[in-house]
Design brief:
The protein is an alpha/beta fold and 368 residues long. The protein has four domains: 1-72, Methane Monooxygenase Hydroxylase, Chain G, domain 1 (Up-down Bundle), CATH 1.20.58; 82-186 and 250-292, 3-Layer(aba) Sandwich (Rossmann fold); 189-241, no CATH class; 295-367, Ubiquitin-like (UB roll). Helix content is 35%, strand content 24%.
């Protein structure tokens, strides 16, 4: 190893040597690659680290495939308008939340690990049925944790349950997730990578690069980006680039809910960029859950009749009149000419095109 390595490289190497899981090793290796010396003497070191990263990713992928084939899984099929998972440490109040907000009746007991398998309930928000999944509190165990973290990754959003405004417990949840590259306090870097017909790495908006260009190029090339254009839509440091090239990085919408077991209520509405709610704020929590699944509710009406407010359509946020028509029936979608909309239009009942973008709780009358 070159003698003139930095403190950051040495710290990352110690982190790698102490790592117990493949996930921890991958994170440490990526940090080592970022901090490796960029002079000629460090070339072999960088190649060796890149080879270790490739071998580790290959092993992790084979392990995931083998686990999938074995049938050992706790995944719950997504249904309804969206899927939101409840995550918490033992005895944090997840089952209490599920009972209060959904139709589920999980076992609630004053001892840890009452929930040993996912419990599923349905939250009805104005006709939008949202699947709420309570996950077992096995985040630190070797056997179940990979399955639980996998479910968190594919969910539309996460609710972090902690009791009595105990921010140490909330911090523990955040740390457990981020150790697995599941980020609930950060947003995905606003950086785009585009395949190029030319050999080499180039940057658009290079003025946003906060590190030496050659260091960023080296890191990207070592990670396999050898003919790419990097579009920097934000101020970008080395940590942003590491997040960008990390194939496991997942950015989850999340809220925190405090269960006041001893009557203690929250005194803040945000923590580390995570919106916080007290368990008693039922309406606000319901609205936020619906907002996080990125759906909108659309009511329909027939000509000359009142709108049907009992059985709304649920479509993706920024969905169009065409999307709403498709949700009803393919014949309506195929024959659709235009629509009249009440709500988001300038005038009530205004005629709009098929590509008009609808807003939540719009009323639509289809013209075929």
């Amino acid at each position: 190893m070159p003698a003139n390595v930095t403190y950051e490289f040495s710290a990352a190497k110690e982190k790698f040597e102490a790592a117990k899981t493949d996930d921890e090793k991958l994170i440490a290796l990526q940090e080592m690659l970022s901090a490796a010396p960029n002079h000629k003497g460090g070339e072999n070191l960088r190649k060796d680290i890149s080879r270790k990263i490739a071998d580790l990713k290959n092993r992790m992928e084979k392990k995931a495939q083998a686990q999938k084939k074995s049938g050992y899984t706790i995944n719950i099929k997504k249904e309804g308008a969206g899927q939101v998972v409840l995550v918490g440490l033992p005895n944090s109040g997840k089952s209490t939340f599920l009972t209060k907000f959904t139709n589920a009746k999980p076992l609630i007991a004053p001892y840890p690990y009452t929930t040993t398998k996912p419990e599923v309930g349905v939250l009805n928000f104005g006709g939008a049925l949202i699947q709420i999944v309570e996950l077992p509190a096995f985040l630190e165990t070797k056997e179940m944790a990979p399955q639980i973290f996998s479910m968190i990754r594919i969910a539309d959003a996460t609710i972090l349950i902690f009791e009595n405004s105990n921010f140490k417990r909330l911090d523990k949840l955040i740390d457990l997730l981020e150790e697995q590259d599941i980020f609930v306090t950060k947003e995905k870097p606003k950086i785009d990578i585009v395949k190029s017909q030319f050999v080499g790495v180039s940057f658009v908006n290079e003025q946003n690069l906060l590190v030496k260009k050659e260091d960023a190029e080296r890191l990207l090339k070592d990670a396999g980006f050898r003919s790419h254009t990097i579009i920097l839509n934000q101020k970008t440091n080395m940590q942003d680039i590491l997040l960008l090239i990390n194939p496991r990085a997942s950015y989850q919408k999340a809220i925190g809910v405090s269960i006041p077991i001893s009557g203690k209520k929250l005194d803040t509405n945000k923590y580390k960029n995570i919106p916080l709610y007290d368990f008693s704020e039922i309406n606000e929590i319901n609205e936020k859950i619906f907002e996080m699944v990125d759906k909108i509710i659309i009511y329909t009406k027939k000509p000359g009749q009142k709108p049907d407010l009992t059985d709304p359509l649920v479509i993706d946020k920024n969905g169009t009149v065409k999307d709403a028509a498709r949700a009803i029936h393919k014949d309506i979608y195929q024959d659709l000419k235009s629509a009249k909309v009440w709500g988001s239009t300038k005038y009530p009942g205004q005629t709009v095109s098929k590509d008009y973008i609808l807003k939540n709780k719009d009323i639509v009358e289809f013209v075929v």
